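Repro:
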Amino acid sequence: MKKTLFLSLIALISFGLLAQDVSDEISVERKPIQISVIPPLSIGKLTDPYIYHFSLSWIAGDNYGLQGLELGGVLNITKTNAGYAQFAGTANWVNRKFTGLQAAGAFNRSRTLKGVQLSGFLNSSELTSGVQAAGAINQTKQLNGVQISGLLNIAKSVNGIQIGIINIADTIEHGLSIGLINVVKMGLHHFELSSNDVAQAQLAFRSGGDNLYGIFYGGVRTQHDPLLTAGLGFGSRFWSAKNEDIFGTIEVMGGSITSTKGSFKKDLNLLNRLALNVGYQFNKRISVVGGPALNVYVTQAYDQQSEEFGFDIGRNNLMSSSSDKTNVRMWLGYQVGFWF
C-alpha cells in the first residue's frame, strides 16, 4: 500500500513537471467547489478548464486553476495560476503564478510567487515577490523580498534580505545576506593576513556583500604564554565618495582564546572586538587595511597563585570589573594587515 501511494505521488509530481501550460485565451468556466480522493477519482474531468473557488482532496488534487482555498491531504497540483490560499500535508505545485499563501509540510513550487511560501523543507520559485520561509532550503532566481531558512537560501539576484546559516547569491542589488556563511558571486571574497595587539599573526576570510559580510578568523601569539585565538564576526564596507580606492569598514568579532600549554582550557575566555578600519585598494585583489579596535575581554579563568583573572593580554585598561567569578576588561587596541 505504501509503495503504491509513493509511486502515485511520484507520478503526480512528474505530471506537474511535464504538464504544458494551457493557453490563456481558452474559455474558462468557474465553479464553486471540487472534491477528490485522488485523480481521476474527482468531481469533474482532469481535462476540463475549470477554475475552482474551493478544492478539497483527501490524498491529491489536480486542478486547472484556483481562486480561493485549496486543501490537500498530501498533494495539490495546479496547471495554471492559483490563489489565494493553498495548504497541503506534503507538497503544493503550481505551474504558473501563485498569489497569496502557499503552505506545505515539505515542499512548495510555483513559477512566480507573489505572497508567502511556508514549508517544512523546501520552497522553490523562479520569481519571488514576498516571503519564502522553509525549514531547510529556499530557492529562487529573482528575490524581491525575504528568504528565511533553517539551512540554505539560494538566489541569483537579491533585492531584499536572506536569513539562514548559508546564503548564496550571484548579486545583491539592494539588501543583505545574514548568516554564518554568505557567498555572493559578484561580492566580497578576501583573505586577510594581519597582526593586532592580541595575536601577532592572524588569518581571516571575509565573504558576502559590501553591506554585510561574514568573517572567520584564527590567530596565534608566540611571545610569553603562547595563545591561540579563533572566532567569527560580521562587518560592513563603505567606499569614499572622493577616492574610489579608499574604503572603510566597521567590524564586530567574537571568539575564544586558549593557551597552547592548556592553562584555563575549560574556563570561559571570550574576546570581543569592535574594529574601525581604513583601507586602500591597490588593485582588484590587494588592499592594505588598519585601524583602532575596542577590545572587551570576558573571562572566568582565575589563577590562585597570582590572584589574577585570565591571560596576560591588554594594556592600559579603560575598565576592569569583577563579579560572580567573572572578570570583564576593556581596552583600546589596533589591527593592521593585507587583504588579498
